Hints:
This protein is mainly beta. It contains one helix and six strands.
Amino acid sequence: MNDSWFVIKNIGFGDTGGATAQVEIPESSPWFAGHFPGFPLLPGIAQIHMAFGLIRESELREGREVAIAEIKKVRYRKMITPGSSVTLSVLRNAENPLRYGFSITSGDETAAQGTIIIRPSE
Length: 122
């Protein structure tokens, strides 16, 4: 899962519908254009995009195409700057397999966390 926006590496898939990966956000990522001039930060939508990308990969391994149905309880706790490397984790809810929790950590700190609810892709 590589593009000019970010690079997802070292994906590890769990047995219970979870996955973890290292994500590098290059300084040249288009996500930083205009967000914010003189103090670039990774937008929240970019973080959700990365989390859903890993969820999608996890679901594709099981033969399912999915889309986002809903995003809930997202909390941004630490700023992610150009050139950062973060750890992205997603975990499928055991009681509701359409619900995933996600977290993005930078070092030992949580940068973002939330819930993404998926649906079958049309």
